[in-house]
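Case study 2.
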Amino acid sequence: MIRELGSRARIGNRALSALMNHAWPGNLHELRSVLGSAVEAAGDRDIGLVDLGPEFRGGVDGRRTLSRIEALERDAIVGALRESNGNRVQAAEALGMSRSTLYRRLRLFGLDPHRTVL
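Prediction:
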């Protein structure tokens, strides 16, 4: 399906686990829609858990489901990191938090703080 969407991206292990654990009430139509959004979100990199919708991000690897506010904060952090091309100092400044707080939040949300760009 990813190739049909015109992408050469691969799906990361955590993202694949999340996709496999989903009930898929919409079957193939829903899967195609989710993959299309993930391909768009990932751009030119492989598809990760952060590229899937919020309903896929909770419950993988024993992690709890994030509250709405936590999900919004995580999405804001990911957005700031993308806008700053992975520069954590600039991202933290844009978010109005210290770099150490940004690192703590990355760990809390299960994001790898050492990746250049999410």
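The chain has a mean pLDDT of 83.
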